[in-house]
């Protein structure tokens, strides 16, 4: 079955990301299957979108989906932090980051993003990266593994889980998501096994973040993205958990509160999906949207 990623908060994005120039350029920094890109290209006939994604497989899906728009869509195979670091100052009118993982990765990629599918432990968004989930689970020492699970999963039983993983791999390599999920399930207290989410969910999130350096990319990417944004341009970020949202919130707040602020924060409180959207797309329930407008260029010292 082919799954199509349902775009998060489409109406809110169209309300806040409105092109101001006659020949605008937008960067979809996390293009994925192109849901948001398709939305904006369909809405604004003069808009061009650069779709950035490091995953070649999902980017090919976006390329095929956008064929109707011809040269108005340009796919770029690159991590978003690298893309913005290499881009020119004041190049773009609109920039969008959707930091969620596409349903493609959970349902189709067969790379171990889902804990319920018995897939090989991989979790790489870029299949060329050296470190996979297999390496984290089977080669990290107990202390490092516990730290990853606690820091990136906010998992209260991180030490117990890490200890169980290390004990298990002494006799047998942990090769699949089923193997890992079962080890975690057995390692936590019985009462913790019957929560709303599977007891392995936070650990899987932590390992995925570690493999792809997800949190390490956010602040550098946003800083460079703001440099490439035109004055009067707008940047939006959709996050799905507090570890993603925190650096976004504080960066925007700091740049809006300087003596000569660089940004105007358009969402004093983050926007969240309504009940109707959550009913239609349960994956949206934890999402938050923050939007800023660039009101002046960054001051360069010692240039």
How would you portray this structure in words?
The chain is of the alpha/beta class. The protein has 2 domains: 10-104 and 215-294, Rossmann fold (3-Layer(aba) Sandwich), CATH 3.40.50.150; 109-212, Putative methyltransferase TM0872, insert domain (DNA polymerase, domain 1, Orthogonal Bundle), CATH 1.10.150. The protein is 42% helix and 14% strand. The chain is built from 13 helices and 7 strands. It has helices spanning 10-16, 35-43, 56-65, 80-86, 103-107, 133-139, 142-153, 158-169, 177-187, 201-212, 214-228, 242-256, 275-280; strands at 25-28, 48-53, 73-77, 92-98, 229-239, 263-265, 288-294. A 7-stranded mixed beta sheet has the order 3-2-1-4-5-7-6, with helices on both faces. α3 (56-65) links the parallel β2 (48-53) and β3 (73-77). α7 (142-153) crosses α8. The longest helix is centred in the C-terminal third of the chain and has 15 residues, at 214-228. The mean pLDDT is 91.
SSE layout and pairings?
Blueprint: H1 10-16, E1 25-28, H2 35-43, E2 48-53, H3 56-65, E3 73-77, H4 80-86, E4 92-98, H5 103-107, H6 133-139, H7 142-153, H8 158-169, H9 177-187, H10 201-212, H11 214-228, E5 229-239, H12 242-256, E6 263-265, H13 275-280, E7 288-294
Parallel strand pairs: 1-2, 1-4, 2-3, 4-5
Antiparallel strand pairs: 5-7, 6-7
Number of strands: 7
Structural class: alpha/beta
Corresponding CATH architecture of the largest domain:
3-Layer(aba) Sandwich
Low-confidence stretches: none
* Helix and strand element order: HEHEHEHEHHHHHHHEHEHE
């Amino acid at each position: 079955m082919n799954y199509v990623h349902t775009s998060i908060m489409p109406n809110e994005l169209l309300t806040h990301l409105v092109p101001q120039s006659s020949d605008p350029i937008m960067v979809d920094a996390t293009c994925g299957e192109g849901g948001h890109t398709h939305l904006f290209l369909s809405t604004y006939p003069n808009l061009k979108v650069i779709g950035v994604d490091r995953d070649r497989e999902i980017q090919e899906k976006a390329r095929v989906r956008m064929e109707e728009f011809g040269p108005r869509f340009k796919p770029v195979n690159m991590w978003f932090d690298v893309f913005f670091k290499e881009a020119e100052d004041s190049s773009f009118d609109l920039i969008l980051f959707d930091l969620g993982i596409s349903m493609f990765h959970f349902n189709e990629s067969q790379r171990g993003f889902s804990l319920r599918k018995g897939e090989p432990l991989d979790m790489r968004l870029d299949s060329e990266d050296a470190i996979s989930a297999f390496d984290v689970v089977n080669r990290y020492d107990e202390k490092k593994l516990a730290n990853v699970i606690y820091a990136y999963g906010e998992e209260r039983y991180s030490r117990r889980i890490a200890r169980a993983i290390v004990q298990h791999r002494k006799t047998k390599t942990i090769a699949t998501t089923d193997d890992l999920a079962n080890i975690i399930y057995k390692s936590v207290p019985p009462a913790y096994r019957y929560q709303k989410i599977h007891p392995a969910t936070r650990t899987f999130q932590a390992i995925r973040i570690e493999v792809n350096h997800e949190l390490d990319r956010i602040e550098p990417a946003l800083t460079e993205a703001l440099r490439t944004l035109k004055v009067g341009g707008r940047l939006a970020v959709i996050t799905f958990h507090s570890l993603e949202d925190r650096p976004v919130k504080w960066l925007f707040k700091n740049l809006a509160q300087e003596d000569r602020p660089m940004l105007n924060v358009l969402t004093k409180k983050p926007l969240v999906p309504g009940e109707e959207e959550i009913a239609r797309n349960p994956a949206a329930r934890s999402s938050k949207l923050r939007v800023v407008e660039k009101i002046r260029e960054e001051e360069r010292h010692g240039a």
